[in-house]
C-alpha cells in the first residue's frame, strides 16, 4: 500500500530523530508498567501502613502518567517542526492534505506499535527487576509477589493509545492550517525577539526574590508545608521569565561590548542566538526546572532513606512506651505479666503520671493562652503537661522544694530564659529550668514544642481546675483525667519483642471490654514496630524518588538532544556560508563550544542555585518526617548534585557532537 510504504520510508529516513523519541517513549511505558505492578499488587494490603503506602504509590502513578502525556507531546512537537519542510515538499508534489493525513496516520500507528511492543517486552523485564529492588529496599513480606495483570497492561496501552491519538490530531491540525509555502519555510523559521523584555525581566526577578525569600525566612515546618508550593510556582514563573527576557537582555548587553562582540566566535554565537532566544529561553527554562526537580526529588528521598535510623530514634527515645488513662502501677503489672507469659525479660521499666496535654498559643514572651478561635499559625502552638513535684523527685532521685506558684519548667524543645511564665489565667515563678529529664529527652524536632511543668503537690488539683476553666471556650480540648506513661525495654529477638507488644494490645483491649468500654485510651509504641513500618515507607519513597529522578533526567537528555538538532539544522546554512568565506574548522569548533557552553550550562547553574535557596525550606519539610540531621541532608544533597552535574556534563558532551556534525561541512 502506497501510504504504508511512504510512512515506513519516512520513519527510516528520519531515524536519527525518531529513534531517540521511540526509546524515550519506551522508557515512559516501562515506568508506567512498573508503577502499575507496584500499585495493583494484592500483597500491598498486608503491609504495615498499607493505606499510606498505597496512597504514595497511587500518587506516584498519577504523576508518572501526567509526565508521560506532557513529555511525549512536548518531544513529539520537535519532530513535526523538523519534518514540516518534508511535508511541504510532498504537498507541492501533488499530495493534498488528506493524503498527508493518511500518511501521518500510518507513521503514528507504526511508531505506536513499535513503542508498545518494545515497551511491554522491556517493561516486563524491568518491572521484575525493579520489583525485586523495591522488595529489598522496603522489606515487603512474602505476600508481596510479582503480578502483572492484564488489567494493568490494558491501562498502560490505553494511556499511550490516547497519547498517540492526541499527537496525531495535533500533527493533522498543524498540516491542515498551514499552506505549502509555510510548511517549506516553517522548519527554518526563527523566533522574533519578545517584546516588553524589561517588564518580564523585572517580573522574573520579583518572583524569584519572593520565592527565595519564603524559603529563607520560613520558621515553622508546618508553615513550610503550606508555603512550599507557593514558592515553587513563583520560582517556576521567575525562571521562565528570566530565561526568556533576561537572556535577550544579557545577549544585547554583550553585543554592546565591542571588544567582546567583535570576535569571530562571539560574534557568530551571539548574533545567531539573539533572534531565536524566545524559543531557546523557554526550552532552557524547561531544562532548568527539570534539573531542579530531579535534584530536589533524588536528594530528599535519598536523605530520608539514609537517615531513617535517626528518624526512628528521634521519634522513639525508648524502646517501648505505653501511654494510658490507667494507674501507672496497673500498667506496670500488665507489662510484666505479658513479658513473663512470652518468656521475654523486662528491664529499665520506669513510669510517671501527668495531666493530659494542654495546647496553648504563644502570644508574647512567656505568655501562653488558650486560643478561642481557629489557629492561623501552628508554629506558635505549645503543649503543657502538669506533673507533681513528687514525681520529679522520684524519677530524678532529688529532693527539690517549691513554694506556692513556683514551678520547675522543662522545655522539651529548645530552652527557656524567662523568670516567670503565664499559662492561661495563671502566672508562675520559674525556679529552675533543668537541662534534661530522664523520661523525656530533648527533641530536635521543632514541630513538637512543649513544656513539662512540675508543680507543688498541694496545688496540683487547683492548677488543673483553673486550666480546665481557661479551656472552656478554647479551640483546643483539655481533660483533667491523668495519664500514665510507662517506659521499658525488652530483651530477646525482634520477633519476640513484637509478640509481647501485640500481647499488650490484646490485654488492654480485653481490659476495656471488661470495664464496659469499647476500648481504653491506650497507646502502645514500639521502636521495632516503627523501624519495620518506617523501612516500608522510606524504601517506597526512595523507589518513587529514583523513578521520578530518572524520568526528569531522561526528559532533560531528550530535550537537550532535540534542541541541539534544532539549533544545528538552523545554524547549518549560516556556518556553511561562513566556512565558504574562510572560517576554519578550528574556528567553527571554537564557536560551537562558546555557544553551547553559554547556553546549555546556564540551566544547570541556575538549577543548583534554586536548590541552594530551597535547602532551608526542604530542611524544614523533612522535619515533618522526623529527619532533623541537617549535616546528613547537606552531605547527601552535595553528593547528589555532584553526580547529577557529572551526568549533565556527559549529556552535554555527547549532544554537542551531534550539533557539531550538523553545522560543519
TrEMBL record:
Transmembrane portions of the chain: 16-35, 55-75, 109-133, 153-173, 198-218, 224-251, 282-306, 536-562, 596-618, 630-651
Organism: Enterococcus larvae
Protein name, UniProt field: FtsX-like permease family protein
Record keyword Transmembrane present: yes
Subcellular location field: Cell membrane
Main localization category: membrane
Membrane topology annotation: Multi-pass membrane protein
InterPro entries xrefs: ABC-4_Integral_Memb_Prot, ABC3_permease_C, ABC_permease_BceB-typ
Keyword list, A-Z: Cell membrane, Membrane, Transmembrane, Transmembrane helix, Transport
Positions of the ABC3 transporter permease C-terminal domain: 59-180
Family: Belongs to the ABC-4 integral membrane protein family.
Pfam families cross-referenced by the UniProt entry: FtsX (PF02687)
Amino acid at each position: 500500500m502506497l501510504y504504508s510504504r511512504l510512512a515506513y520510508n519516512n520513519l527510516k529516513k528520519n531515524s536519527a530523530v525518531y529513534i531517540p523519541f521511540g526509546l524515550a517513549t519506551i522508557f515512559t511505558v516501562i515506568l508506567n508498567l512498573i508503577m502499575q505492578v507496584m500499585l495493583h499488587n494484592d500483597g500491598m494490603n498486608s503491609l504495615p501502613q498499607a493505606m499510606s503506602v498505597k496512597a504514595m504509590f497511587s500518587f506516584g502513578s498519577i504523576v508518572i502518567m501526567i509526565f508521560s502525556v506532557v513529555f511525549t507531546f512536548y518531544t513529539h512537537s520537535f519532530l513535526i517542526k523538523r519534518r514540516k519542510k518534508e511535508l511541504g515538499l510532498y504537498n507541492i508534489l501533488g499530495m493534498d492534505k488528506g493524503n498527508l493525513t493518511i500518511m501521518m496516520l500510518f507513521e503514528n500507528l507504526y511508531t505506536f506499535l513499535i513503542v508498545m511492543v518494545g515497551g511491554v517486552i522491556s517493561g516486563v523485564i524491568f518491572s521484575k527487576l525493579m520489583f525485586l529492588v523495591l522488595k529489598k529496599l522496603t522489606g515487603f513480606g512474602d505476600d508481596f509477589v510479582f503480578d502483572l495483570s492484564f488489567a494493568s497492561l490494558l491501562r498502560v496501552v490505553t494511556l499511550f493509545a490516547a497519547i498517540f491519538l492526541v499527537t496525531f490530531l495535533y500533527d493533522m491540525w498543524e498540516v491542515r492550517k498551514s499552506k505549502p509555502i509555510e510548511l517549506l519555510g516553517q522548519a527554518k523559521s526563527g523566533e522574533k525577539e519578545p517584546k516588553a523584555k524589561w517588564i518580564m525581566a523585572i517580573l522574573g526577578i520579583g518572583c524569584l526574590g519572593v520565592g527565595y525569600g519564603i524559603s529563607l525566612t520560613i520558621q515553622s515546618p508546618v508553615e513550610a508545608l503550606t508555603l512550599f508550593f507557593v514558592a515553587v510556582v513563583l520560582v517556576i514563573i521567575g525562571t521562565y521569565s528570566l530565561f526568556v527576557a533576561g537572556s535577550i537582555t544579557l545577549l544585547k548587553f554583550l553585543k554592546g561590548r565591542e571588544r567582546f562582540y567583535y570576535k569571530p566566535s562571539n560574534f557568530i554565537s551571539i548574533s545567531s542566538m539573539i533572534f531565536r532566544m524566545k524559543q531557546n529561553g523557554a526550552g532552557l527554562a524547561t531544562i532548568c526546572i527539570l534539573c531542579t526537580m530531579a535534584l530536589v526529588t533524588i536528594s530528599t528521598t535519598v536523605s530520608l532513606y539514609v537517615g531513617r535510623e535517626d528518624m526512628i530514634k528521634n521519634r522513639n527515645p525508648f524502646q517501648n512506651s505505653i501511654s494510658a488513662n490507667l494507674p501507672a502501677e496497673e500498667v506496670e503489672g500488665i507489662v510484666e505479666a505479658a513479658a513473663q507469659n512470652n518468656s521475654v525479660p523486662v528491664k529499665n521499666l520506669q513510669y510517671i503520671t501527668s495531666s493530659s496535654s494542654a495546647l496553648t498559643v504563644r502570644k508574647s514572651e512567656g505568655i501562653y493562652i488558650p486560643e478561642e478561635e481557629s489557629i492561623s499559625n501552628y508554629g506558635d502552638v505549645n503543649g503543657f503537661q502538669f506533673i507533681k513535684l513528687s514525681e520529679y523527685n522520684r524519677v530524678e532521685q532529688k529532693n527539690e522544694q517549691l513554694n506556692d506558684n513556683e514551678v520547675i519548667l522543662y522545655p522539651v524543645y529548645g530552652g527557656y530564659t524567662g523568670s516567670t511564665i503565664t499559662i492561661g489565667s495563671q502566672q508562675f515563678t520559674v525556679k529552675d529550668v533543668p537541662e534534661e529529664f530522664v523520661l523525656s529527652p530533648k527533641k530536635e524536632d521543632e514541630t513538637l514544642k512543649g513544656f513539662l511543668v512540675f508543680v507543688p503537690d498541694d496545688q496540683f488539683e487547683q492548677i488543673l481546675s483553673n486550666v480546665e476553666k481557661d479551656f472552656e471556650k478554647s479551640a483546643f480540648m483539655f481533660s483533667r483525667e491523668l495519664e500514665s506513661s510507662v517506659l521499658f525495654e525488652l530483651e530477646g529477638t525482634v520477633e519476640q519483642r513484637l509478640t509481647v507488644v501485640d500481647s499488650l494490645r490484646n490485654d488492654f483491649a480485653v481490659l476495656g471490654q471488661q470495664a464496659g468500654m469499647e476500648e481504653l485510651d491506650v497507646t502502645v509504641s514500639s521502636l521495632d514496630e516503627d523501624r519495620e513500618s518506617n523501612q516500608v515507607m522510606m524504601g517506597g519513597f526512595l523507589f518513587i524518588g529514583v523513578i521520578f529522578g530518572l524520568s526528569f533526567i531522561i526528559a532533560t537528555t531528550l530535550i537537550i538532544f532535540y534542541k541541539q538538532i534544532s539549533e544545528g539544522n538552523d545554524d547549518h546554512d549560516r556556518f556553511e556560508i561562513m566556512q565558504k568565506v574562510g572560517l576554519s574548522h578550528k574556528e567553527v569548533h571554537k564557536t560551537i563550544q562558546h555557544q553551547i557552553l553559554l547556553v546549555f550550562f546556564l540551566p544547570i547553574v541556575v538549577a543548583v542555585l534554586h536548590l541552594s535557596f530551597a535547602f532551608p525550606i526542604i530542611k524544614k519539610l523533612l522535619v515533618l518526617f522526623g529527619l532533623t540531621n541537617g549535616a546528613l541532608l547537606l552531605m547527601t544533597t552535595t553528593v547528589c548534585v555532584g553526580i547529577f552535574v557529572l551526568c549533565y556534563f556527559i549529556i552535554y558532551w555527547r549532544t554537542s557532537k551531534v550539533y557539531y556534525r550538523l553545522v560543519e561541512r
